Amino acid sequence: MPEVFDCSAADGLALGVAAAAQAVRAGQVVVLPTDTVYGIGCDAFDASAVSAVLAAKGRGREMPPPVLVPGARTVDGLAREVPDYARALIERFWPGALTLVLRAQSSLQWDLGDTNGTVAVRMPDHPVALEVLERTGPLAVSSANLTGLPAATDADQAEDMLGSAVAVVVDAGPVHGGVASTIVDCTGEEGRVLRLGALSLAELNEVLEPLDLTIVDEV
C-alpha cells in the first residue's frame, strides 16, 4: 500500500512533497491533487513509469497521458512551433484547466505512448501540484481513476482505485473542480477543441477573436 501524506498542515505538506519527488526520481508512481481532479503521475521521461501509469488505469499506448509542467517557460523545452494563438491561451489561462496539444521536440528522449509526434501540456492551478512539479520537473499525469470510472476528487477515492500501483499519495483534501480540463489542438494554423471541459468555447474565443476555435469532439 502507498504512503499517504496529509498535507493540511505545513509539516505534512513538506513531507508529502519531498516523498512524492523522491518516489518520482526512483521511477515510481504517485497520486497528487490538481485544480480539476486528482491525478496519477510519474516522471515524463521514464518510459517504464509511464507504462506503469497506463497499466494502473487499464489504458493502452493509444491513450498517452498529458504532461504537467511547473511554468509556462517549460513549454518551449517540450514543444516546437508553438503558434501565437497558443501562447495567447497560455498567457490567459495558465495556470488553469487548459491542456494544449503541441508538436513535441523531436530531440526529447521519452515515450509517452502513441502520440504521433505531439505532446499535451498543462500547468495546473494547484499550489501542492506546483510544489511537486518544482521538485520533479515535467510529470506525465492522467486522472486518478480506473478507465471507465469517474475521476477521483479526493485522495481516498484515488487510493481505493489505484493504491496497489502507487508509492505515494499526496492528500491535500478534496479538489473542487471536478471537471476535466479543456483540450485544444494547437498543431495547426487554427486551433481545434478536442474536448470541452472546465473552460467553455466562449471563454477561449474571447482571447482569440477574430480567430475562432472550432469543436472537433465533446467527451
Describe this structure in words.
There is one protein chain. Strands 1, 2, 3, 4, 5, 6, 7, 8, 9, 10, 11 and 12 form a twelve-stranded mixed beta sheet that branches. It is globular and about 50 Å long. The protein has helices at residues 10-25, 47-57, 75-78, 84-93, 127-136, 155-162, 201-208; strands at residues 3-6, 30-33, 38-43, 67-68, 79-80, 98-104, 118-122, 139-143, 168-171, 182-185, 192-195, 214-215. It is 31% helix and 22% strand.
The number of helical segments is 7
Helix content bin: 25-40%
Task: Give me the strand/helix succession.
Answer: EHEEHEHEHEEHEHEEEHE
Number of strands: 12
List segments where confidence is low: pLDDT < 50 over at least 5 consecutive residues.
Answer: none
Q: Helix- and strand-based class? A: alpha/beta
According to CATH, what is the topology? DHBP synthase
CATH architecture verdict: Alpha-Beta Complex
**Number of structurally distinct domains:** 1
Strand content: 15-25%
**Mean model confidence by pLDDT:** 93
CATH class group: Alpha Beta
Q: What is the CA-atom radius of gyration, in angstroms?
A: 16 Å
Distance between the termini: 32 Å
- Classified in CATH, the superfamily is DHBP synthase
